[in-house]
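Field reference: sequence -> structure
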Amino acid sequence: MQTVQSVQLALQIFLWLQGLFLFSVVWTIGGTISGDSRPKFDAFLRTLISGTDPNYPKPKTSKLTKSHVFPERGVECDASDAAKARG
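Structure field:
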């Protein structure tokens, strides 16, 4: 039988891995596109992550909430500065 602590730890690890995946996507794709395409990539990725695109709904296994994803201002490539500011 799983304890509450082990369930919380599993969720925390799952969220951490999803966050690492998003970070990797942003820097792998976002780092290779030109400056003019970054706002388009930003809009596409935010729509995809939020699950608001009916063609690409958010997976039921996704546990990311608004507080787990990129800040709303700026483009996602700027989010590393926000993460550094939080510690």
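Note: Residues 79-84 have pLDDT under 50 and may be disordered.
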